[in-house]
Amino acid sequence: MLAPQRRSDPSGDPFEVVTMGRIGVDLYPAQTGVAIPQVESFNKYLGGSPTNVAVAAARYGRRAAVVTKVGEDPFGAYVRDALHDFGVDGRFVGTDPGNPTPITFCEVFPPDDFPLYFYRFPKAPDLNVAPGDLDLEAIGSARVFWATVTGLCAEPSRSATLTALEAAEPCEYTVLDLDWRPMFWDSPDEARGWVGKALEHADVAVGNQDEVEVAVGTREPREAARRLLDKGVKLAIVKQGPAGVLAVDGHGEAQLPPVPVDVVNGLGAGDAFGGALVHGLLAGRDLTSLIAHANAAGAIVAGRLACSSAMPTAAEVEAKLREAADAR
Length: 328
Prior knowledge:
Layout: E1 17-20, E2 24-29, E3 42-47, H1 49-59, E4 64-71, H2 74-86, E5 88-89, E6 93-96, E7 103-106, E8 116-119, H3 136-141, E9 144-148, H4 157-167, E10 173-177, H5 188-199, E11 204-208, H6 209-216, H7 221-230, E12 235-239, E13 245-249, E14 252-256, H8 269-283, H9 287-302, H10 314-327
Helix pairs in contact: 1-8, 6-7, 8-9, 9-10
């Protein structure tokens, strides 16, 4: 096991949250309910799932940083500025001069159809993060390290992600977001092998039913959670859409329904859930409270168009929980 030393943010303390993986620019249509050929204008946002998780954590006042790369282009400059504006430390954002910063378009057909179009060609800079680019001291001294399965889909990011997960073993929590994006892989079987290696270093695994099926071969929530625990994780979280969320650890389980919301754009809900999950783990919440807060955060963002800029504050999450309780 790697033995990182302490590394601090500008306040003199280690980071509370370090995430690693996708970053880019989201271009979302200003007009909803129409296909891209009919869209008249787009709004620009910081994007990338682990980046959004870092933004969400920062909204709760957590010291957060992201490990990734951008292109040497104006979109890369925008991404760096946006991270700074959101309070996320960008010191571990490298530059890949040979590839452009990724762009992602979406279509918005509420309540449940949000097609994504990834422009990550010829190769996304975040997939060129190499083991030698990593600050293993910073990763190992963080309280939470968050990695994604997408980071395993290509080299050198695959080796870097596994190296970072190993370095993160001293962290209080190492989270693997099962984050299955089929367009980045040749097959689910290929992904399953690498996910298995990553799970050897994870304390927490979180994914929806499609993602847990890729990871452990079943989409039945309790069986998937059991198999994840058998892989060595201490907390398995299976998101089931309208059926809610199942969370299982070594002491029991919590099964919570979703928080009602009029969906505007469901794409950022999972990242908001992740940020609230990280905050709740650090706050020492019990399993039921942990998932309740994460569900509420996800619902808030599902009711908004953007992702990163839509991430809620702690006060907004508490208000949403009170609103849901009053509606029962």
